[in-house]
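[job 0412] stage=fold_complex status=start
inputs:
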Amino acid sequence: MKKQALGKTIDLFPPYLFMDLDKRRKTAVKNGQDVISLAVGDPDLPTPASVARFAAKEVLKPSNHRYPEGRGTARLRQAIAAWHKKRHGIDLDPETEILALIGSKEGLAHLPFALIDRGATALLPDPCYPAYKTGLLLSGARIKRLPLSENRGFLPDLDSLPGSFFKGAKLLFLNYPNNPTGAAADLKFYAKAVAAAKKHGFWIAQDAAYSEVFFGKPSPSILQVPGAKDVAVEVYSLSKTYCMTGWRLAWMIGNPEAVAALAKLKENLDSGQFNAIQETAVFCLENHDRLATPIREIFRKRADFFTDVLEKAGWDVFRPGATFFVWAKPPARIGSLNCVYRVLEEASVLITPGSGFGPRGEGYVRFSLTAPEKRIREAAARIARMKWKV
Ligand SMILES: Cc1ncc(COP(=O)(O)O)c(C=O)c1O
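[job 0412] stage=fold_complex status=done
writing structure:
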């Protein structure tokens, strides 16, 4: 029998970073190590019980069992508009400026198909969350890396880049609060980004998946910048806000043409998210403060003590303004991957190499504080005991 060949598209992708790391974790466990994983950005905390109870009732309702409404139920879109009005003071038309997604990863990865042509240039922050690249590779976009550096708080220096840098650019991905660095952005930065997008003619896709895990002032929305809706869309998610990564519900807000384009693509691709989950999202948004505040406080406490311990142990830590990530350089100048291997071998703690988020992540590693507090304290203590000088 002739052996079937696979298509070439799949070769565009390296094995997903976390899968490779997970393989190493399994081997270490097999070898008897008590491995603590601080690698994957998936909260250990369960979804609040009141949310799960509400959802259970919704699941039993036959009215929720049919194909969902494509753009999201009217109730969900109204609840999203009301939430943003209260949280950011922005007005959104539920009919034209809001679209439900099956998680922000899905929406962000599909977005390039809706917004730009094959061969168009897209600006990709370096380092950044890998899913933006997935969509860009599949849609045939040309990727140009936009450097983020620590001395600018991991915000791109849009003012000092020459005009030629933006030539031909049609789409810019932003992500604040930021994975992997934990950086937060303010409205002044978003105003600069919107001005650059208008000047050079590109769309902005701002990923706000970590919008509610902030430690200082509440993170603003890019749509608070006057006129931002002309050029920007922004994506929000239940995943991190309410510890609901497995439930798969997010939404995009902003420019109505961009919203309509992604809605059209999705009508042809998927059939939306289960109505019971959409109803549950309404419950979450209507009970936001009660649900999100305790979760945020847990992550704040974890970030405080973890960064303190690492700093005392000689690590060069970028103190996170938001998210549950800690981005740091080890006490010895070794590459990201070597650092990850050493930490796994000597401390039995699994972390993520910064180089997995782009070339500028080299030298850094990312800690995800998504394990029970006792385990995070144990991980910090083990790492602090490591001897880096050879
Ligand atoms: C920056 C960023 N955006 C989006 C996502 C995906 O979130 P969702 O669960 O909404 O797909 C993640 C998940 O880790 C993330 O880190």
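[job 0412] summary: The longest strand covers residues 169-175.
[job 0412] exit 0
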